[in-house]
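Reopening this ticket.

The earlier resolution said the output was attached, but the attachment link was broken on my side. Pasting everything inline this time so it's all in one place.
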Amino acid sequence: MLSSRLFWKLFCVYALLSAVTAASVVTILGGRLRDIAFQQESRRLHDSAMTMVRLLDGSFDGSRHSNLTAAIDTIAKENRSRITLIKDDGVVAEDSERDPATMENHADRPEIVQARGAGSGTAQRVSPTLGISMLYLALRVGDESTPVGYVRLSVALDAVEAEIDFVQQLVVGTFVAVSLLALAPMFLILQRIIQPLTTLKTAANAIAAGELQQVVQIDRRDELGSLAEAFNTMSHDLSARMFELNQTSLELRESSQLLSTVFGSMVEGVVAVDNDENILFANEAARLLLDVGDRELIGRPVWESVRNDTVKTVVRQAMSGLERSVECQLPRNETIVEIEATPLAEDPCPGVVLVFHDVTELRRLENIRREFSSNVSHELKTPLTIIQTSAETLLDGAIEDPDFARRFLTRIDEQGNRLHDLIEDLLQLARIESREQAFDLTSVPIRLVVESVVDELGSLAESRRVELKVESDIEHINVTADKRAFRTIIENLLSNGLKYTPEGGSVFVSWSRDGTHAEISVCDTGVGISRENQSRIFERFFRADRARTREIGGTGLGLAIVKHLVSAFDGEVTLESEVGIGSTFKLRIPLWTDEFTGISEN
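Inline output:
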């Protein structure tokens, strides 16, 4: 209870009120006592002054008589006051404490000025003669028209102030004692009021902490007792309702978790929009498709998150009750999506559900299929046309001429070999993509395979006047690959470099160890590949320079085969190229590791 802030607030307020009351009473009573004391002192001075006036008997000549002086001294001593006789012109005739000859003219003293007109005058000030606070009273001797002089009595106020201070201290002490005595019952009264409130507060905190079943025992018939009964009723009802709510919440939570699991596992993006076009719900797939990062979507306008006019139009059309299905490209990540907009079944329509299907890969595959069909048709049509034309020329009589016949038969043979190579590459690429080709992963020595391919292509390099060489000081380094497939990779890369390197250029191979992988580089000083074509160089039938490719031959599938074979070995191939300077193909293939010891071969 002593820790209750309300208790101390009320207690301090009561104590403050008591202190204010005491201070007010002391101030008022002290002022009244001061007035009474001044009035009594003024009355006493007035009586003494009247006595002096009667002694003067209307005669005031300022002469110093022994009887008058003795009377002045006696009355001054009895009244503890100072008596001064002042002539009409302000000259001091007699004074009970000072020599009149040493005193200045008193004609301008306030009490004298007041007595000159009214017959009597009072004033309170610091005496210039004695230097202490004095109360002055002056009476006029004689008529107003013919004043003789003035009798002035003064008394020091320090004694009066001392009496007043004593009375005030007595009053203050009395009030302090009474207030302190009154604080004890006030303490008990406040304790009786605060204790039930503290009990209610403890029970309310327990309810806030989740302990809803609370009962407080306050046996009183006042408002606090009624409050306790109402609190107990509220606690009981709240506990019952919270039990019902918990059951409902559990069911809703299970339903929500089920829906969250279903929506979270969907690959389609789902977005719910209200009738103000603000997002109510978006699953994780939708966040990934819209590429919004960690930004909060709930409550934001759908057009702000999607930034596509087609989506905005579809939502508004669906609001009117029309189900729509459109395809568009999202601006942030250029993803192609098919959007199905379905209005919610209420009137008026409360919102729309948008389902985003990512069809980017499907459209890419369709484009690849179209391009592949077109490229295959073109690649097959060209040699077949040459074969057909040559055969027709021979049938038209050229066969009779041995020179013409040999030339056209040679062309038919070359194009037949080209068709054979093209079909073999297509079949190999199809087997690699369909995982039908089984690879015998073993330890493949890089140097042996590379030198074998270099020796095989040496005559081709000489015919093209291109330098073909190996640049590596590492003798023994093996990779995990299929030996035949690894040879195909190296052969395709070196053949590609020789084809696109002009006379006087060079093609060289090097390799090094990079952690758990071997890094093989095939560099040439050829024509290079422009930056915009580098991302497509590994596509089937893609040629950066189609005219030059037709001139030097090739199926256009070599680099696509390289990429798929390297991927089959859990490796990767990258390209660095600059037009007019050359190209560098880098292979990263895992080193051969003994499966029992886990030690890489050197």
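Reporter confirms the inline version is readable. Residues 5-56 form the longest helix (52 residues). Residues 547-551, 595-602 have pLDDT under 50 and may be disordered.
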